[in-house]
Every structure is written in structure tokens, then in C-alpha cells.
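Narrative of activities, Objective 1.

The group set out to show that a structural description can be obtained from nothing but a protein's sequence at a throughput compatible with the screening campaign. Below is one input-output pair from the validation batch, recorded exactly as produced.
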Amino acid sequence: MKVLVQIIALLSVCGFAFGQDIVERCLEGSSSNGVGNFTVAPCDLSSNRYSCETRIAVNGENMYIERKCKQRMACLNNQQNNRNQCYSQDAMSKRVRVCYFCCDEDVCNDFDTIIPSASPTVPTPDPIQIDDLEDDEFDV
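Output recorded for this entry:
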């Protein structure tokens, strides 16, 4: 009986008991030049309707970071602009860059540097691509 109580307690802590789902989370908040506040907030990542988004804006020596749970399609649309706003020679030479990154794992938006553009020589995390989505994944 004691072992059974311990198993039930362990399952409750893990979120499996009594039909509860595990709550997925994203960091939310903002910072300016390393000063700010981020908290962990629930985000329904398993539904494929939401992603954790990180927006990193660099203007000269200043860096602004914003993190949040965002509708997945909106996040992916923002991320599609990285080619021009983040990785282009023009953005880098003017030292004004706005970069968006989407991810779909628990508290995955915890980085504070710009992820390098995908290239054969630079290993990068697998970004979510709009082309990878099935048409029926989202209600329009």
C-alpha cells in the first residue's frame, strides 16, 4: 500500500495522474541590454497552434530581447523575414537587425544570442519552416 501511495504521488507531481496533461511553457518577458525580467508561462505547444517566440533586436551596441508564447503561424511569418531583417548584408552592415526564432519544446526560447543562419558549415537547431506544415494543421 505504501508503494502504491508513493507511485500515485510521483505521478501527480509529473502531471500524469487523474487525466492531467503536462503543461508546456515558454519564457515570457523582455530585456534591454541584459536588464529585464523573464517568467515561465504556460503555452499549449502540443496543439501545434502556438510556439515559443524569441525576438532579438540589435541596434548598434544595444540589444533588446522579447520572449513570448505566440500563435504558431504568426511566429513563422515573423521568422520568414529573417533573411532580410536579420541575416542580410545590409542589416549586418547597418548594425540594425531584427531576428525572430520559433520553437516548440518546453521552455525552448531561453537563448540570448542570434542563431546563425543555416549553412552547411554552421550547425543550427532545426527551425520550424512554414513549408514543413501540412495544410490541414491550422484552421483558417
